[in-house]
Design a protein that fits this description.
Blueprint (H helix, E strand, L loop, with lengths): L2 H4 L7 H8 L5 H5 L8 H7 L4 E5 L2 E4 L5 E4 L1 E8 L2 E13 L4 E9 L2 H14 L1 E3 L21 E5 L2 E7 L6 E2 L2 H9 L5 E6 L5 H17 L3 E4 L6 E4 L1
Parallel strand pairs: 10-11
Antiparallel strand pairs: 1-5, 2-3, 4-5, 5-6, 6-7, 8-9, 9-11, 12-13
Helix pairs in contact: 2-4
């Protein structure tokens, strides 16, 4: 643990002070508050069982050809004084029960880039709308999503679709990290575009979940069965 982590948290925002005083004691109220979430310590306090994973966005030449995936990506910017190098990292954060976040970080070295990405993922955290929207499954456990949604980043477009229980995660390895930390067990993921760009496919999937959360859903009862059905 470094010195910064060992220091007591002194909130700098009104929302942070409300969380520390106990006026807000759950992440749902914090995310839906009129004040923006601007301190990662708020998430640390309200969701103590958070886990994180690094997305392998970089690559180095392998011994037998091809590329070996690494956790960071080196970027270059040209200035009057010459080239300036920075390291980029991407981190997924979640509690495995409907809370997930995605963040990017830039620094001169990989360690600090990952740390900044981890903090950014907490500030970009959200609640996933989970359910059981597959017509092939009449179960009640929320292992998938209630309806399909789309997201786009760069040239990559991702469509997420509800799957019946037992299907598993039909997605790439990095997308599975995002889904698992979000508490999704069954899902079909369809992607189009330059899907070899791992950053864009992760961002597109994350935006698909955001778009799904923003959809307004009403409930109506079928007269013949009495079942409650969600209508987008």
């Amino acid at each position: 643990m470094n010195r910064e982590d060992s220091k007591p948290w002194k909130p700098k925002t009104k929302l942070g002070r409300m969380v520390k005083k106990g006026e807000i004691d759950n992440i749902h109220d914090a995310l839906n508050h009129r004040l923006a979430l601007r301190e990662p310590e708020i998430v640390d306090k309200l969701v103590p069982n958070l886990e994180d994973d690094v997305i392998l966005i970089g690559g180095t030449p392998g011994k037998g050809g091809g590329k070996r995936r690494i956790v960071s990506k080196r970027t270059v910017r040209m200035h009057k004084s010459g080239r300036r190098f920075k390291t980029k990292a991407m981190v997924v954060t979640g509690n495995g029960n409907g809370i997930v976040g995605l963040g990017e970080g830039y620094a001169r070295d990989t360690r600090n880039a990952i740390q900044k990405a981890k903090q950014a993922s907490k500030l970009n955290i959200m609640e996933l709308r989970r359910g059981n929207g597959s017509w092939e499954d009449r179960g009640t456990e929320p292992t998938t999503i209630p309806f399909k949604s789309k997201g786009k980043s760069g040239s990559v477009e991702v469509e997420i679709m509800p799957a019946p229980k037992g299907t598993g995660l039909a997605a790439s390895t990095d997308v599975k990290k995002l889904l698992s930390l979000g508490g999704i067990e069954d899902l079909w993921v369809k992607s189009r575009g330059s899907t070899r760009t791992r950053e864009n496919i992760i961002k597109a999937t994350f935006r698909a979940f955001k778009n799904m959360n923003n959809m307004k859903v009403t409930s109506e009862i079928k007269e013949d069965t009495g079942l409650v059905v969600g209508v987008v």
